[in-house]
Specification:
This protein has about 270 residues and is α+β, with helices and mostly antiparallel strands. It has helices at about 5-20, 35-45, 85, 115-130, 145-150, 155-165, 170-175, 190-200, 220-240, 255-265, and strands at about 30-35, 55, 65-70, 90-95, 100-105, 135-140, 180, 205, 210-215. A 9-stranded mixed beta sheet has the order 2-5-4-3-1-6-9-8-7, sandwiched between helices. Strand 7, helix 8 (about 190-200) and strand 8 (about 205) form a beta-alpha-beta unit. Helix 4 runs parallel beside helix 8 (about 190-200). The protein starts with 5 loop residues before the first helix and ends in a 10-residue tail after the last helix. Bound molecules: 1,3-dihydroxyacetonephosphate (13P) and zinc ion. 1,3-dihydroxyacetonephosphate binds next to loops.
Length: about 270
């Protein structure tokens, strides 16, 4: 069975995990995974007759001929586990690197997530930046981080510092910091280009008043990054609310440098005083 193949099983589990965290109301959020060649071969016996090509409005040379597992547009991540064939699918990218076609799943006329252009461009830049190591792009509607985008200046510096200071593990988990995309219409090529521009530098990009995009080499690390950032945002919001808008003390820049030294990570110096 398709769902016994580890790449597919891990994908389905991540959808369920995100649902259980409360990050995927209705059809909110989406997930894509760039398959390894051997995983494509494991899945190939289950492929259906390929359907028509669909142009994406974005293009990437380094993703020509790749295969992605993707959630469907308008599909509820809550339902993925019970009915993968209708809620997720596998798409193949054409030789020009600008179109997809469904080779498995997304039954009954479903299509890949409306954020596929953003996922695709993020895959392209993260693949290039990590020598092919990064394979997962994940978008979720994380409530505490979204709340932060109403009360904090929409800069990478403000968000990174607030998140780093909100839990001691944060600078170790995302030493590069997070980027911030201002409010934009979701689902198209413009937000895809703006997000992937930030993904050249960061593993994570906040979408103001909308949610978060994260990237990683596998499901665990990528889910863990989403979880760590959202939990830090929760701690920040709890502290700022309980403190009546004031924070009495926090992790200092010297503390941050000490953590980085101890854990052998290089903090993005742009964000330190
Ligand atoms: P899709 O249902 O098309 O994946 O859209 C959900 C979403 O979160 C849009 O940003
Ligand atoms: Zn969204």
């Amino acid at each position: 069975m398709m769902t016994e193949i580890p790449a597919v099983r891990g994908f389905v589990r991540m959808c369920t995990d995100g649902w259980e965290q409360g990050w995927h109301e209705r059809n909110g959020g989406n997930l894509t995974y760039r398959m390894k060649p051997e995983e494509v071969e494991q899945c190939r016996p289950f492929f259906t007759a390929p359907r028509e090509w669909n142009s994406m409005g974005v293009q990437a040379d380094n993703l020509k001929g790749e295969y992605f597992i993707t959630t469907g547009s308008g599909k509820f991540l809550r339902n993925v586990q019970d009915d993968p064939e209708h809620n997720i699918g596998i798409v193949e990218i054409n030789d020009a690197g600008d179109s997809w076609r469904i080779v498995w799943g997304l039954e009954n006329g479903a299509r890949p997530t409306s954020e596929f252009p953003s996922h695709f461009m993020n895959h392209s830049v993260r693949k290039a930046a990590t020598n092919g190591a990064y394979r997962v792009i994940y978008h979720a509607h994380t409530p505490n981080l979204i709340a932060m985008t109403y009360i904090m200046p929409l800069t990478a510096r403000d968000f990174t510092r607030a998140l780093w200071q909100s839990a001691t593990e944060c600078p170790v988990v995302f030493p590069g910091g997070v980027g911030v995309v201002p409010w934009m219409v979701p689902g198209g090529a413009d937000i895809a280009m703006a997000t992937s521009e930030l993904m050249k530098k960061y593993d994570a990009a906040v979408w103001a008043h909308h949610g978060l995009f994260v990237s990683g080499p596998d499901y665990d690390i990528t889910f863990g990054l989403m979880h760590t950032i959202e939990k830090a945002a929760q701690i920040y919001m709890l502290a700022i609310t309980a403190g009546g808008g004031k924070i009495r003390q926090t992790i200092t820049d010297d503390n941050l440098r000490a953590i980085a030294k101890e854990f052998g990570v290089e903090l993005n110096e742009e964000f330190l005083n």
